[in-house]
Amino acid sequence: MTQGNIQIVRYGDLIPCKTAFIDAHTPGSNQKENFTIIGGGVSESPDQHVHINIPHGFNIGAAGQPPKCRNSLHSHRTAEVFFVLKGRWRFFWGRWGTAGEVVLEEGDIINIPTGIFRGFENIGTDYGMIMAILGGDDAGGGVIWAPQVIQDAADHGLILSEKGKLYDTKKGEKLPDGVAPMPVLTDQDLTTFPEPTSHDVVPNHVARYLNMVALADRNPALVIGEHGILKDKPGFEVDFLTRQSAQINPASAAMPTVLMPMRGHWHLTCGDLQKTLNPGDTASIHAETPYTIAPCMTGEASLYRITATTDPAGPTWKGK
């Protein structure tokens, strides 16, 4: 839905891709649904649908998974942030996924440190959904897979080219002449990937939903930013709004902004445009566009807001 300087992608209109990544055939990971909402994302499949293909300085995506389905170990060169929209999720990291872990409940958010292998799985009882923010318009140039993921994928018919494109040998596809497979990281390469413990990661990279609700009782709570709960400068900022800290007076940002409701129904007004946003919806607001956003029904209401900054979309910044 596009009207003027506002574009809205409804949760119910999201188009999934089940062949987005190299582990699409690997047992335990082959039921994933990936969604690219804003920006090109990091999908390795031409089947991936992009809902809003306009540069924002960051990418917005999502992953939907049934219980016991996991996303294989990988790394990124820019920030990867998730908040749990539905379900209960376990995030784990390290070369073999055993260095540390944390369980996130609905509304919790994690800013996973760059440069470590990470994965996640739905440990709830129903289909779960996590929403993702990736730093940079090109999201750091793609995904870096742990060696065993590439090897397991080949055993199940999928080969990733050095250019980041998937080929399915079960469909008779093969690498084109002159194109090599994606190199597998060597033992020397792997020494550059840290193995932080849960005690290293959780205090500085995870924020809990109820804590953010309490902090946003008067003003929006800055969650990710130089002075945020999770101190970082990944090329965007994330703040958290509740009924008590809604934006009832028109205001704008110098950079593109994205609104992502977590709880309740929110009334978005931009000039003559009036729309209701629901949990799972994504609204893109162009730079310098005044708007208001406030709950339109009684009950619990919370919303994540992502705003681009001029900071480079590089590795996770260690704030002081």
Structure notes:
With 320 residues, this protein is mainly beta. The protein has two domains: 13-205, Jelly Rolls, CATH 2.60.120; 209-308, Jelly Rolls (Sandwich), CATH 2.60.120.10. It is 9% helix and 39% strand. The chain has four helices and 26 strands. It has helices at residues 147-155, 187-190, 198-205, 209-215, and strands spanning 2-3, 6-9, 33-38, 50-52, 58-65, 70-75, 80-86, 89-93, 100-104, 109-112, 118-122, 128-135, 144-145, 158-160, 166-168, 206-207, 221-225, 230-231, 236-242, 247-251, 257-263, 266-270, 273-277, 282-285, 291-295, 302-308. The strands form five sheets. It has an eight-stranded mixed β-sheet with strand order 1-2-24-21-26-19-17-18. Residues 67-130 form the Cupin type-2 domain. It comes from Parasulfitobacter algicola. InterPro entries: Cupin_2, RmlC-like_jellyroll, RmlC_Cupin_sf.
Largest sheet: 8 strands, mixed
Helix percent reads under 10%
Calculate Rg over CA atoms.
Answer: 19 Å
Number of strands: 26
CATH topology of the largest domain: Jelly Rolls
Mean pLDDT: 94
Task: Write the topology of this structure.
Blueprint: E1 2-3, E2 6-9, E3 33-38, E4 50-52, E5 58-65, E6 70-75, E7 80-86, E8 89-93, E9 100-104, E10 109-112, E11 118-122, E12 128-135, E13 144-145, H1 147-155, E14 158-160, E15 166-168, H2 187-190, H3 198-205, E16 206-207, H4 209-215, E17 221-225, E18 230-231, E19 236-242, E20 247-251, E21 257-263, E22 266-270, E23 273-277, E24 282-285, E25 291-295, E26 302-308
Parallel strand pairs: 3-4, 17-18
Antiparallel strand pairs: 1-2, 2-24, 3-5, 5-12, 6-11, 6-13, 7-10, 7-12, 8-9, 8-11, 10-16, 14-15, 17-19, 19-26, 20-25, 21-24, 21-26, 22-23, 22-25
Organism: Parasulfitobacter algicola
Protein name: Cupin domain-containing protein
Pfam family, one: Cupin_2
